[in-house]
Structure formats: C-alpha cells, structure tokens
Design goal:
Elements lengths: L3 H14 L6 H7 L13 H4 L3 H4 L3 H10 L9 H13 L3 E4 L5 E5 L9 E6 L12 E2 L3 E3 L8 H19 L8 E6 L7 H4 L10 E7 L4 E6 L2 E9 L4 E2 L12 H11 L3 E6 L2 E13 L3 H9 L7 H8 L4 E2 L2 E10 L2 H21 L5 E10 L9 H12 L5 E5 L5 H4 L11 E6 L3 E2 L7 E3 H21 L3
Helix pairs in contact: 5-7, 7-15, 13-15
The protein binds zinc ion.
Length: 463
C-alpha cells in the first residue's frame, strides 16, 4: 500500500475534475499540490466535495463513523460498542473492561518479534448534541455548532484501520499489535488509571493524541499543585495598632515572598521548556466577610474580583494570606530542585519573622512527569517513518499532561516499564472548540506515517 496516499489524492482530483475533460496526466501533476488550490481546480462552487465520496476511503469512513457518535467524558459506551463491532467484523478480538475501556489484540505472526501498543482516547469535549460532519475540500469539520472530536477519534480510527490492514495482510511478519482505547481522558484521566496493564505485552506505546502531523513527543511535564500559606497571628486594628512593630501584615508579607519565588520558565533545553512555575491566585486579608455574604445571599456579580475588592475590609492588619501555584516539569530532579529552592526561601522568611509570622510552601503532585527515555531507538525510527511518509518529523517535549504520563510509570506483563511516545498523525485545529477541524491531506499522510512506523518497527527493531 505504498502509493495508497497518492492514489487517493488522484482519486479526489479525478472526482473534482470529472466531466471537465482534464487528462490523467494533469491529475498526476496536480497531485503534488494541495488539491484545494491546484492549477486545475474548478470554480469555487465545484470545489466542495461530497463527504460521501471522501468516505470511500476506509480510514476516513471509520473516522466519520466514530466522530458521528457523541462521546462526552464518561459517556463513551456507544462509541466503544461501535469500535468493538468494527474490529470484530475484521475478525479482531476486542472487548471492554469493567470500567468501559476497550482493549484489542492482533497476535504475532512471528514470535521472535516484539509487539507494539497503540493507544487513543474515546471521549471528546462536547455534549450529546448531533455531530453534522461537513467537508470543504480540505478540512473535515462540523456545522460549527459543536466539536468534531478529531481529538482523539482521529487517533482511534487510525489505530483501528491499521489493525484491520495488518490483520488482512497474512504475509506481514510482525510481533503483534495491541490496542487500548480509553474513557475519560479529557476530564479526569480515569480511563487510563483503570487499565489493567498486567496483560499488555508491548514495551513501546504510541499514544496517538498529538495535534500536529509528525509530532513525536518524547517527554511531558508533570503537574504539581502548590500552596503558599502565610500567617501573622497578632493582627489588629489598622489605626490603633498600626505603630506596633509586633503586628505584621500577612498580605504585605506574602507579597514579599511572591516576589522572591520564581515565576515563569525555570529551566529550558533544546526540546523546549523543562520546568515552569505559575502563580494562579493570591488571596488574603479582609475578604472573608464579603465572600460569606456572596455565598449566603447568592449574590451575582459580573466580576467577583471587582466586587470583592470593592467590599473587602481595610481597617484590619491582616493575619492570613495564601497563594496557589502550579509547577510543571519533565525532569523530576529539576522539579525537586525548584521546590527545595522555594522551601529555602520560606525558611529564610521564617527566620526573619520568627515569632511574628510563619510561611509554608506545600507541593502536592497531581500528575507525574513523563520523562524522556534513555533509549532513543523508537524516536529515531519514528522520525525515519515520518520522512518516508512524506511528512516532517518533530521530536520535542511538551509542557502539558497526557496519557503518556501514566504509561511512563506503569509496567507491562513482563515487568518492564512502558516507553510511551505522544504521536501526531494529523493536523487538527481549534481542538476543544466548535471550530475544530482536521486537515484530510495531513491525516492520510499521518496514517502512512503510522503504517510505516509499524512496518519499520517490525523490520529494524525486532531482530
Ligand atoms: Zn486528546
């Protein structure tokens, strides 16, 4: 199926130009161009190609079939059933676990080779409203009334279609393909956290959930919540007590600390940002009576910040203030270094204000980091496969969370820690919004990338 993509573009151009007397020679020439802007493209109204025609491509059809089933986080059962049905039609063993995730497997045709795991999530941002799919000659999108769900059904469909092709191709010598389709990635990562990893044999995992074709993301940041707490118990009246040097103001002091604590990028390297820290909120002083009033009287305000700032008390020396931070890092040791540095800052503060005020900085891990593996074989193989598919690989880290982070801390059936990669097999734009769209040309190329990845994995890496 090496020239599959090219044939598909030719087919599209054939459809676009059918009846206009353009010779087959021209189809080949224009197949190098983006087909919505090619030299032989007809006037605007003829550019719109029927989605039905596009769905003659099996990958696109599976994608549209799944995208048309609403699957907000926690309500993925219908799409899970459809996935199992499609796989079973191709004689591929697939089933739902107790939590509702789907697992499928194609056994090895060569037991000397190692299996590969593809993973994607079934839930999408959005509700149960219908998904009316449109195609504008370049992008698949909705009627703009809701999300398309290419995040992550593009990944799910690519994995399914690859499995079907592998299953059909009896001559291909491979070490097996495992598929995991999870629930609730978007809201709570509860699906991946309920996976039983002990029956998965693969060591390498391709999580098909990046939004740019050719992305091979080899590390991802942790997410740690942290709270800075300052208490200055004496307090007092802002007039009568103001001259008393023993009465320090917690809000003033938290400002002093915030000023010393780093903000923004803490460390970066050639792959991007390694560690960052961001203050999310700071609160303190005479705000409590006003917040209580909002709650008790169910007060609606256009801006609660404005409302509270206007109504907060000013006639007291504040006793308590807090700030909330997030820390993200793809290097555990560097995150630890940052937290220790901040704790040192608070220690020095506590010495300075001993007996008057006390500060504490408490960090609570929310998502562990996905650190880059020392084994770079699969990164290199992925980059080669991507180039072979005619796309540009981009091996980087990413400064956010994904299911890769969970895999990176779990062990497979033989006790080996998974080596996950976050892979982009299409250009998806405006994810999580009603303008979400997927570029068809990039998706077809992304699918070739994935296919070549699997083929090369079973040739090069499995001796
Ligand atoms: Zn996603």
């Amino acid at each position: 199926m090496k020239f599959y993509y090219k044939y598909f573009v030719i087919l599209i151009i054939f459809i676009l130009t059918a009846g206009n007397g353009v010779s087959s020679q021209n189809y080949l020439i224009s197949s190098k161009h983006n087909f919505s802007q090619g030299d032989i493209i007809k006037p605007e109204k003829e550019k719109i190609m029927d989605i039905k025609e596009l769905r003659k491509n099996k990958l696109i059809d599976i994608f549209c079939t799944l995208a048309e089933i609403p699957s907000p986080s926690g309500q993925e059962d219908k799409v899970a059933q459809k996935i199992i049905e499609i796989l079973k039609q191709a004689d591929i063993e697939a089933k739902q676990d107790d939590f509702g995730n789907v697992k499928a497997k194609i056994p090895a045709t060569d037991s000397a080779k190692k299996p590969l795991l593809l993973s994607a999530h079934m839930d999408v941002i959005g509700d149960n409203s219908p998904i009316n799919i449109k195609y504008n000659g370049q992008y698949i999108e909705t009627d703009k009334k809701r999300t398309l769900g290419a995040d992550d059904k593009a990944g799910v469909a690519a994995a399914i279609n690859l499995a079907i092709e592998i299953k059909k191709n009896q001559n291909l010598k491979h070490g097996g393909l495992e598929l995991v389709f999870t629930k609730d990635e978007e809201q709570g990562l509860s699906g991946i956290n309920h996976i039983d990893f002990s029956d998965l044999e693969s060591e390498y995992v391709l999580v098909l959930d990046a939004d740019k074709l050719g992305q091979i993301l080899v590390a991802g940041a942790s997410y740690t919540n942290a709270v800075l707490d300052v208490t200055a118990p004496k307090g007092g009246h802002s007039g009568i007590d103001i001259a008393d040097k023993e009465r320090v103001n917690a809000v003033k002091l938290i400002g002093e600390l915030i000023n010393e604590i780093p903000q923004g990028v803490y460390k970066a390297n050639e792959l991007g940002v390694v560690t960052s820290i961001n203050i999310g909120s700071v609160i303190g002083g005479g705000v409590e009576p006003c917040i209580k009033q909002i709650s008790d009287e169910n007060i609606k305000a256009e801006s609660y910040i404005d409302y509270i700032a206007e109504k907060s008390m000013t006639n007291l020396i504040n006793t308590h203030a807090k700030a909330r931070y997030s820390i993200r890092s793809s290097e555990l040791a560097n995150e630890k270094e940052l937290i220790e540095k901040i704790q040192k800052i608070t220690e020095n503060f506590n010495k300075k204000y001993e007996g008057l005020a006390k500060a504490e900085f408490i960090a609570t891990p929310h998502l562990p980091a996905f650190e880059r593996s020392n084994d770079h074989k699969l990164e290199e193989l992925g980059a080669k496969a991507c180039k072979a598919a005619g796309a540009e690989p981009s091996v980087t880290s990413f400064h956010a969370g994904a299911e890769t982070h969970i895999y990176a801390h779990k062990k497979n059936k033989s006790g080996k820690t998974f080596k996950p990669y976050l892979i982009g097999c299409a250009d998806v734009y405006n994810m999580h919004s009603s303008d979400e769209k997927i570029n068809v040309e990039s998706y077809l190329k992304g699918y070739e990338f994935l296919k070549k990845f699997f083929e090369m994995y079973n040739v090069n890496e499995n001796r």
